[in-house]
Specification:
Layout (H helix, E strand, L loop, with lengths): L11 E6 L5 E6 L10 E6 L6 E5 L1 E4 L9 E3 L5 E6 L2
Parallel strand pairs: 2-6
Antiparallel strand pairs: 1-2, 1-5, 3-4, 3-7
């Protein structure tokens, strides 16, 4: 089993982006960015401490981009998950 402590270049993840700009990677995206995300997560951002509801996003990790504010949370600090209908 692959450890989820490091992001793998070229792989897809489900993430949220905090208002402070911190991207929080929650878990691997098994649909490789093709799935339909219909939920939001209530998460506390470890960077700024804000707790809010965030829409889930597909995130394709490419390290050559200048994305220096990506945090992988293992396990994710998910308090609630809500499905939008």
């Amino acid at each position: 089993m692959t450890s989820m402590t490091d992001l793998v270049p070229g792989h897809w993840y489900i993430s949220i982006e905090c208002a402070c700009g911190e991207r929080l990677v929650l878990f691997a995206d098994l649909t490789e960015g093709k799935g339909n995300l219909q939920g939001s997560f209530r998460v506390t951002c470890p960077a700024c401490g804000t707790q809010a509801f965030y829409p889930a996003e597909h995130y394709h990790y490419e390290p050559e981009t200048k994305d220096t504010t990506t945090t992988f949370i293992n396990p994710p600090p998910v308090v609630d998950f809500f499905v939008h209908r």
